[in-house]
Each structure stands twice: as C-alpha cells, then as structure tokens.
Design goal:
Number of helices: 16
Strand order of the largest sheet: 17-20-21-15-14-23-24
Strand content: 15-25%
CATH class of the largest domain: Alpha Beta
Bound molecules: nicotinamide-adenine-dinucleotide
Length: 504
C-alpha cells in the first residue's frame, strides 16, 4: 500500500460546529423532544445535531403542504412570480457556498473541493428550473373540426414528498425540489438522517427568498416513521425518492394504497465497454474517475468495465497505474480526490464483496483492503481493482458502492451488449470507440437511461436523467423532469350551437 497517494490530516477551523438543525413546518422552525447526531466519518468529529421527528411533526408538515397547495398561495402564482423566487434561491445559495461546503464535506466524508463544486453547481439547477417555470405550457388542438377546440392544461400534481439519500444530499435535492416548485407543487422534504444539514440551510434560504410559508416543509428524521408516513399519507399526491432499490420498492408498495404517483431514482451497476480502437489513455482516465469519484458511493459509479480481450491486460495495467496516483485522504484537504467511506458498516459491506469475489476465483490487481490515512482515525477503503470477474459473481451484479472496479472481458459487439444488459439495473452505461457505428449501435441496444460515448458522467440541468429496469421510474432534469410534477388536464370545447341533441 506504500505506493498509493495518501493525503494526511489537515488543521481546519471547525469552531462553528456542531450545526443545529430544526424542522421547517409552515414557515416556522420547530424543535423536537428527541435529537440525533452526525459525526464525520473521516475524523469522528461531532458535525451536527438535529431535531428528530416522529409522526406528529410529519403529520403537521404534510398538513401544512396540503393547505398551502389547496389555497393556491404558490400554485396559482404566475410562472414569472415563481421564477423570481427560484432565481433568488439560486443567488442566495451562491452566498452560502462555503458554509454548506464544509458541512457537506464533513457529513458525507467527500473531498471539500468536490463538495464545493456540487453546492455551487446546484444553484444552476435552481436557475434552470426558474426558466422552466416561465416557459411552462400545455397543448392546443385546433384541428378537430370547425366546431371543436381542445386544450391540454398542465397543472401541478399537488403535494409532493421528497426523500433524499446521503451521497449527494444538496445536488439530489436540486434535481427534485426546484422542478416541483416550478410546476407549482408544495413539498415535504426529508433529507437522509446521515446528511441533513445542507437541507436545513436551504430551508433558511427559501424563507429569505420569500417562498410563502407551508410551500416547502422540511422534516428531519429516519425512514421510520417519517419516510414511510410521507410515502403512504393520503394527503400526499406524489413521492419522489432517491435511494436504494430496496427502500424504493417499499415506497412504491406504501404509495400504492392511495395510488400516488411515484418517481424513483435507485441504484446502478453501470458498465463501460472499451473497444480496441478507443483512445485508451482517455478511456483509462475516465474509468479511473468513474470508479473512484465520491469513493464509488455513487449511483452512476462505473463499477464494472467490459474490455475487449485483446487489450484487457494492457488496459487494466493502465487503470491500475492511474489508480495509484489518485489522492485518497483527508476530505478537508483541497488536494484530496477521494475521501472517507460513509460508515464502518458500509466499509465492511464493500470489503465483503471483494473477499467473496476472491473466494469465487477472482484476482486482486490492486488494493482489496481498508487503508489508514496518517493522522486520521476514520473509515477509508483503498483503490481496488478485481480481475477475472465472471458475470455470475455478486461483485459483477450488485451495487458495491465503494472504490472497487470489476473487470470483465468480451470478444464481439453482441457479447459486449449482452454483458452490459445482463443484470437487474439500467441506470447508465458507457462505450469507448473511435467508430461512430459501434457507439451508436451500443447506444441503441443497451438498456440504460443514460449512455455516455467517449466520456463518463457528464451531466447538465437540461439533459434528463433516470433509470430503466430496477434503477428507477420517471426522469429528473430537463423538460421531462418538470413534466413529472405536472398533471395534464384536457378541456374539450364546442364552438357555437352546432351540437345536435342526443335525445330524439
Ligand atoms: P436509502 O434507501 O437507505 O435511504 C434513502 C432515504 O430513504 C433516506 O432519507 C432514508 O432515511 C429514507 N428511508 C429509509 N427507509 C425508508 C422507508 N421505509 N420509507 C421511506 N423512506 C425511507 O439510500 P442511501 O443509503 O441513503 O443512498 C444510497 C442509495 O441511493 C444507493 O443505492 C444509490 O445507488 C442510490 N442513489 C441513486 C441515485 C439515482 O439518481 N439513481 C442517486 C444517488 C443515490
């Protein structure tokens, strides 16, 4: 392990900690009798302490959102008025980037430079949603005959429960909340109990931006009882959830009793296929980024590569050499590229996948164990490459959610596509080739919501994102992301007195 790039502990001003979080319900900040805490996984520092909601706080938040929706204080504003508030939110996020960056870095364990990029970048999601609020429109049908005219109105769906995970807390909230607000919905938001602080700060920003009380309510707490009540409550019209496939299934089941709309962004086991004619240096760099970004705790992690067998050995050697140069270490250091694993239990789960693969006959080309960072007590897993992986192994099929790359090989395009599609997930996939026909054939035949060709993980507010198969339901970002929160309503009109009586 001596030849890895390790960034030791740094000194930082943490005097403002712990951050104190409360619920935002009907425009007021509310505490609870119970509380929960978050310690940083890299340092063991107490980062934040939060009010812990039960059923009463959750009920109050849902009722506040219901009342706010029904009285039209937000849903009946013009698109221009809604856009003005969303733009102010984007501006205010810009003024609090550093404060949120520190909390996001410490609660998740991700590198501070990456956290800063995510917080600042999320402001752009709010700006884009403001543009959507102003350009929202339905359809008209002017070709139904001389005496008929029809319109399809797009109306906000109502009260939306938004439940988010710990791996990209502020960014993922930005893929949901501004779009729901642009549509005119009211919301109840529950951040992950592991990473709630930046969602609370967003609540402060929403109040300052002039969002009417009750339009966004934030409830801090756990899946039980808060999340499950948000998924099943009869006054909620839609649930938008990002998290694990396991919890996603339980949310769909809970929502089914009242037939709520459900949007799910779930796990992935995303393949990158590398053909021999690709720019192999570019591909190796992107594969390295794809597997270690966010310590692999990423739904879009490029956690398995499928490499043509003629180049498999040389390509794996390139990725192994690059992996040693990735800076693992203290999340507070600006130079760190990969930080801590979110919890000791999760670190054990990652290691279990690697050990099981070895027992099943795979080989370790690099890593395969926890590492220690000088001066830090926290949970770190080293860059890991597992070769000789066969499609039946759990490491090839399940979401490892750690800095672990599985290498599989192929001979023909058909075989590569079959391997890419072999599995229950369908979030994203990548193809590396200089031949446009190869790239397009791959893009058309692979079952995934996003296909990257000769790149990995580029995303834009304008470009929709979501999963096929068990990676999810529905789409975020882009116009499709707005449509999720709208209900079409047809208005069919007869012009003049041309209708003949039915009763003769
Ligand atoms: P998780 O499913 O454990 O938790 C997600 C959220 O659901 C948390 O807020 C949690 O408190 C809440 N929750 C837990 N049990 C619940 C229940 N019974 N009812 C309602 N809510 C409940 O996921 P996680 O560990 O926070 O995040 C990691 C997972 O998220 C990974 O599987 C990852 O792939 C997925 N993810 C997907 C995307 C995507 O866009 N597809 C993005 C990021 C993360």
């Amino acid at each position: 392990m001596q030849d890895l790039t390790l960034i030791p502990a740094v000194k930082a001003d943490l005097s403002a900690l712990p951050f104190q979080g409360r619920h935002l319900i009907n425009g007021e900040w509310r505490d609870s009798a119970d509380h929960f805490e978050r310690h940083s996984p890299a340092h063991g520092l107490l980062v934040s302490r939060h009010a812990k909601a039960g059923t009463a706080e959750t009920e109050a938040a849902i009722q506040a959102a219901r009342t706010a929706f029904d009285d039209g204080r937000w849903s009946r504003l013009s698109g221009k008025e809604r856009a003005a508030v969303l733009t102010r939110v984007a501006d205010l996020v810009g003024t609090r980037v550093e404060e949120m960056t520190l909390l996001e870095c410490l609660e998740t364990g991700k590198p501070i430079a990456q956290a800063r990029g995510e917080i600042a970048g999320a402001a752009d999601l709010w700006r884009y949603a403001a543009a959507l609020a102003r350009t929202l429109h339905g359809d008209s049908h002017n070709s139904l005959g001389p005496d008929m005219l029809a319109m399809v109105l797009k109306e906000p769906i109502g009260v939306v429960s938004i439940i988010t995970p710990w791996n990209f807390p502020f960014w993922i909230l930005g893929q949901k909340l501004p779009f729901a607000l642009a549509a005119g919905c009211t919301c109840v938001v529950k951040p992950s109990e592991i990473t709630p602080s930046t969602t609370v700060i967003l609540g402060e920003i929403l109040v300052e931006a002039g969002l009417p009380p009750g339009v966004v309510n934030i409830v801090l707490g756990h899946g039980q009882p808060v999340g499950s009540l948000m998924a099943s409550h009869p006054e909620v019209n839609m649930v938008s959830f990002t998290g694990s496939t396991l919890v996603g299934r339980s949310i769909q089941a809970a929502a089914s009793a009242t037939l709520k709309k459900v949007a799910l962004e779930l796990g992935g086991k995303n393949p990158q296929v590398i053909f021999p004619d690709a720019d192999l240096d570019q591909a190796a760099d992107a594969v390295t980024f794809g597997v270690y970004f966010n310590a692999g705790e990423c739904c879009n992690s490029g956690s398995r590569i499928i490499v043509h067998e003629d180049i498999a050995e040389a390509f794996t050697a390139k990725v192994t050499a690059l992996s040693r140069r990735v800076a693992f270490g203290d999340p507070l250091d600006e130079a760190t590229q990969v930080g801590a694993i979110v919890s000791p239990a999760h670190l054990g789960r990652i290691d279990g996948f690697v050990k099981d693969a070895v027992k099943a006959g795979a080989q370790i080309a690099l890593g395969g164990e926890a590492i220690s960072i000088p001066g830090l007590s926290g949970d770190f897993y080293g860059p890991t490459i597992v070769t000789g992986v066969t499609p039946d192994m759990a490491i090839a099929r399940e979401e490892v959610f750690g800095p672990v790359l599985s290498v599989l090989t192929f001979r023909t395009l058909d075989e590569a596509i079959a391997l890419a599609n072999d599995g229950s997930y369908g979030l994203s996939a990548g193809v590396w080739s200089e031949n446009v026909h190869t790239c397009l054939a791959f893009a058309r035949r692979v079952e995934a919501g996003t296909i990257w060709t000769n790149t990995w993980m580029d995303g834009f507010p304008e470009v929709t994102f979501g999963g096929m198969k068990q990676s999810g339901l529905g789409r975020e970002n882009g116009r499709y992301g707005l449509e999720e929160y709208l209900e079409p309503k047809s208005v069919v009109m007869r012009i003049g007195r041309s209708r003949s009586n039915w009763v003769r």
